[in-house]
Design goal:
homodimer, 420 residues, alpha/beta, Aldehyde Dehydrogenase, Chain A, domain 1, Aldehyde Dehydrogenase, Chain A, domain 2, seven-stranded parallel β-sheet, four-stranded parallel β-sheet, globular
């Protein structure tokens, strides 16, 4: 470990912690002003930011980086627009901080409630996509936190330019610049220093591939909220309506193949398999989806290939679907407990008891009846922009919006109460 | 590391994980039946349990264990009664699991809410007090979780006897015994195995001294909710009423010296110091409390000794109080930010703006106006029995009741909605 690197990063983290005392007390208007100032600064520096982004991409190309990664690296027009829209949405969103809920009067007259407060300093460790710099900083700040941002070294020029615009906007509206701290060192050892800075950072959110997430969760001394994988299921119950089944399977698989809330395994009740599968799977075949089925599926649908054990746990993010016929709702639930990833698992049914049992017993982070899997998303659920999707149960479970970046303290309003 | 030990403990943890699938679906009545059966079994085995406890104590005495620890080890009549009452309270408490809150209708008609579900498997690592075995197991089970209990080796005989009664009760009412798993190995390496069993355990709660808590937080690969220290403050504002100040300071310091919610540092506004301190501190001197004050305090109250820097951060749990005169409410808040422990910090004031500023800006886990510090306690806040007091902000902050042992999943009720 380079001692200088460590000292410099800890100094940055300490400054962010100091800034978080100020961000905790920002008013709605101050945060809104920052969002609008940030939009102005970003638009004013657009040419310079895109030039930096172009240099990152050229560099990555020279180093033989693969095409999908290059695409993620690019600040396209669409991404730029989304980034600016995101800031506008966050500006308008109600302030989560300071809300008091659940006030009750205790027998001694003491009024007890809970007030929403920021977590403090959030560390975001991410890869490639430079737009995360803006999205993450804005969400953290809106929730009253300081943000420490550590993007991928391949995006460092664009990240620096973006962060500079955000910090200039902060300075202009009287927010300490350290509230938005970009770690400028591309050395991977920088991550190790951050993960041990538990006196300055309250929460680490890794956003990136499985390797990054594994590394961060294993090495961090700071709590980590992670998003592992999206092995999402639909279960077609015995009573499922054919038209609804076709519509929901097609939409869940086809809409956005590369998103974590896409369908990966279809489960079908034995009593409905022959009625539903031929048309449901033919729809997918027309979309060039490869079907990997259990023995019964392969009997019913001749174009299916035999699935292996690995298929039940696969997050394809691609034109492949695993299909299994199960004996009962219980077997479907057991399959999900064994192979699922606590992401999104929905039932298609006309039966009241099946729907209730599913909602009660499947403990994935999003559980639905008669809807596509694509709804596990901050905007779709009404949370606003999301900082990630948590598949571990502590603190936040499922799509994580502004509230996930806050906590609740107890507030006591007394008139001289003492404990007897 | 002993490979056998590791294999055996992981097997126990795997069984607890398996049992947690059953405990997640227990009804209110089944959990209530278990509580009553546990009371019966404990009462029926009382003689044997107390004999085991006596052997633990004799053994500890032989090894020269100090008197306070011996006292914590003892299952006195009062502790036994509290243990049984605790089970009765938990039996009657509403079931937290399955409650759905916040249902809202999205523009597409999808109804979205959140349902409370168990965390899964909770590991409790504790010392000395054998009654924790019963309290912790009952709280975990009531919240639908399986419990893995790892008590101190000095209490192993009593813990075994207590756990046996709880498991027999489980068997009788049809709950898998592994839902209450006591780690019978007294080897300290057992803790290391547990802390790495992140595929089987969802949350670790250490209950014990600072050394245990430090070890657990540093070594755990599983999320830890910890209770660090209780450096609690009262701030007497310029407008504080003398009678109320005397009553609240006396009660906060004297009621239970050894509890984490006792008063450790008194802050006083400069404008009120001469009016309030003489009588407030004289009350404490009559209770043999040693006063360690800042320069101004020592001028005002001749019996005060000069405080050192270390006093501002001290959790005395004893007849000592640090006292500091501050220039303003802002200075009081800055003092708490620097030296406090995020436990309980209250203001005594007659002024509306001071009260509002305090509640808004002090981000300790419990923040109060005009009440004693002793109210940060599960029962006092209306949460029921508490599993601990969290002084870190993630997931649970402050006294942690049944809800802290649960999480929320999203539930979606649709009629065929797809994402456009």
């Amino acid at each position: 470990m380079n001692a200088n690197l460590e000292t410099e990063i800890l100094e940055l983290a300490r400054n962010a912690r100091e800034a978080s005392r100020a961000t905790a007390n920002l008013s709605f208007t101050q945060k809104q002003d920052w969002c609008f100032a940030a939009i102005d600064k970003l638009e004013a520096s657009r040419t310079a930011i895109l030039k930096a982004n172009r240099e990152d991409i050229d560099d990555a190309q020279k180093h033989g980086v693969a095409a999908p990664l290059l695409k993620r690296l690019e600040l396209s027009d669409a991404r730029w627009r989304d980034m600016i829209h995101g800031l506008r949405d966050i500006a308008a969103f109600p302030d989560p901080i300071g809300q008091v809920t659940g006030i009750r009067v205790r027998p001694n007259g003491l009024r007890v409630g809970q007030m929403r407060i920021p977590l403090g300093v959030i560390g975001i460790i991410y890869e490639s996509r430079p737009n995360v710099t803006v999205d993450a900083a804005a969400l953290c700040l809106k929730a009253g936190n300081a943000a420490i941002l550590r993007g991928g070294s391949e995006a460092i020029r664009a990240n620096r330019a973006l962060a500079e615009a955000l910090r200039t906007a902060a300075r202009e509206v009287g927010i300490p610049e350290a509230a938005i701290t970009l770690i400028p060192m591309t050395d991977r050892a920088a991550i190790d220093v951050l993960l041990k800075a538990d006196s300055y950072i309250d929460l680490i959110i890794p956003r990136g591939g499985p390797e990054l997430i594994r590394k961060v969760s294993q090495d961090s001394r700071i709590p980590v909220i992670k998003h592992d994988a999206g092995v999402c299921h639909l279960f077609l119950d015995a009573s499922a309506d054919l038209a609804m089944a076709r519509k929901l399977v097609h939409n869940s698989k086809i809409r956005q193949m590369a998103y974590c809330n896409g369908l990966e395994t279809l489960l079908v009740h034995r009593d409905a398999a022959r009625r539903l599968l031929p048309q449901v799977l033919e729809d997918l075949r027309e979309e060039s989806v490869e079907i990997r089925g259990c023995t019964t599926t392969c009997e019913i649908f001749v174009h299916a290939k035999p699935a292996t054990e690995a298929d039940w746990a696969a997050e394809y993010l691609d034109r492949i679907l695993a299909v299994r016929v199960v004996d009962s709702l219980d077997t479907a639930i057991a399959h999900i407990e064994r192979y699922g990833s606590n992401h999104t698992d929905n039932i298609v049914t006309e039966n009241y008891a099946s729907a209730q049992t599913w909602i009660r017993r499947v403990n994935s982070s999003t559980v639905g009846v008669n809807c596509a899997t694509g709804f596990s998303d901050g905007f779709q659920l009404g949370l606003g922009a999301e900082i990630g999707v948590s598949t571990s149960k502590l603190h936040a479970y499922g799509p994580m919006g502004l509230e996930g970046l806050t906590t609740l303290k107890f507030v006591l309003y007394g008139e001289g109460q003492i404990r007897e």
